[in-house]
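Quick one, probably user error.
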């Protein structure tokens, strides 16, 4: 069911958003949201429900408190920022369930928005025991009349606020989840070709299932980030002190053989930016990918590799990117990630950025988000979709009521 098909007027609608934003705490204890992208992404669904007279109760998590109340992971500042973005009052209750929540919900009028405290302060939210999750879900369902799934970043989880409560109420996908599903359906169904995938990040093991699934469907596979050094090692090159998963070398060789057998163009770094330490002020140099000296580590793809990757994306019609090309948080090692992002932004292709660090890099580097067809809000969820897996938080929306 889509959001517009759900009856919401004068009803309490429980909205599962993804408000898991990065925070910084100053010396005086002031908490600052350093990237409000996920809060902004939650606004359209909430505004749509307000326009239709719903009473909106938002549940979300922040960090990994593991069932403990941790003031530094409170959603209070997030609720305040949501109110600024909505330009409307947003209530906050420092509880997940109980009399205080029930009283606040009972006092709501149509169009009101209320944010509950971090759901992961309650250990039942992420419990492996179905009966514990169900008990928490039942407490919400006792006062809610409908459920909206709008936290794409958690739809790959079997959790009380994602799957269990959804089964107890009339339910629908929010506008964000709808958009995510449509975008990934386009790249995983019958993508317009040439179809290119750019994979980066730290470890091959994190992307192994993606590599195995996509090698049968892509035309071009571009590899960067720390995982590239395991590919270089699989070719017999020394990688110095670069990140390396030696146990993955046989698997990588098989992936390379599969790509060759299927006619997939595999692009690997031909040069790299190296440093003698993991810091922005370390001594650095650009060397050929097969000439990394002992004691040095690769922290970004090199300038010629960036040119090669941009050229490989120039005439693509579909591009998916998941994982940075280097340690983009440090300015000396951000050029490769910027080059890939700019090549995608300038492309006429349908472009999907797979959430997580890639989305963070776009914002940190100041590249306009509107220059991409879709920027996912869920790193883990987008990865599992690219792996070809069924996500429980999406599957539950399709179950019979």
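Nope, works fine. Designed sequence:
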């Amino acid at each position: 069911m889509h959001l517009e098909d759900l009856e919401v007027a004068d009803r309490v609608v429980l909205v599962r958003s993804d408000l898991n934003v990065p925070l910084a705490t100053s010396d005086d204890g002031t908490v600052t949201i350093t990237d409000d992208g996920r809060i902004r992404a939650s606004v359209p669904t909430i505004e749509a429900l307000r326009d239709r007279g719903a009473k909106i109760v938002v549940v979300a998590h922040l960090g990994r408190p593991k069932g403990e109340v941790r003031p530094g992971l409170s959603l209070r500042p997030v609720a305040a920022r949501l109110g600024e973005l909505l330009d409307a009052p947003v209530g906050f209750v420092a509880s997940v369930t109980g009399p205080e929540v029930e009283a606040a919900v009972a006092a709501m009028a149509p169009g009101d928005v209320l944010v509950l405290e971090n759901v992961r302060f309650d250990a039942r939210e992420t419990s492996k025991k179905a009966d514990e999750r169900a008990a928490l879900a039942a407490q919400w369902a006792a006062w809610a009349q409908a459920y909206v799934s709008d936290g794409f970043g958690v739809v790959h989880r079997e959790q009380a606020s994602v799957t269990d409560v959804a089964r107890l109420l009339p339910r629908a996908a929010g506008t964000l989840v709808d958009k995510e599903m449509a975008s990934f359906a386009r790249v995983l169904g019958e993508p317009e070709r040439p179809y290119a995938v750019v994979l980066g990040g730290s470890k091959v093991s994190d992307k192994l299932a993606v590599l195995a699934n996509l090698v049968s469907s892509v035309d071009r596979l571009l590899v960067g980030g720390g995982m590239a050094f395991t590919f270089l090692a699989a070719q017999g090159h020394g990688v110095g002190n670069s990140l390396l998963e030696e146990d993955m070398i046989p698997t990588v060789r098989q992936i390379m053989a599969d790509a060759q057998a299927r006619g997939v163009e595999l692009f690997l770094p031909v040069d790299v930016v190296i440093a003698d330490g993991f810091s922005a002020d370390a001594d650095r140099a650009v060397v050929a990918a097969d000439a990394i000296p002992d004691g040095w580590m690769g922290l970004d793809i090199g300038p010629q590799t960036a040119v090669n990757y941009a050229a490989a994306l120039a005439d693509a019609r579909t591009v998916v990117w998941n994982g940075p090309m280097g340690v983009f948080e440090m300015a000396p090692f951000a050029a490769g990630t910027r080059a890939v992002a700019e090549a995608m932004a300038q492309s006429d292709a349908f472009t999907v950025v797979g959430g997580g660090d890639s989305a963070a890099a776009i914002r940190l580097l100041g590249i306009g988000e509107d220059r991409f067809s879709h920027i996912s809000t869920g790193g883990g969820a987008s990865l599992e979709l690219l792996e070809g897996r069924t996500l429980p938080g999406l599957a539950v929306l399709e179950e019979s009521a």
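The first helix runs from residue 37 to 51.
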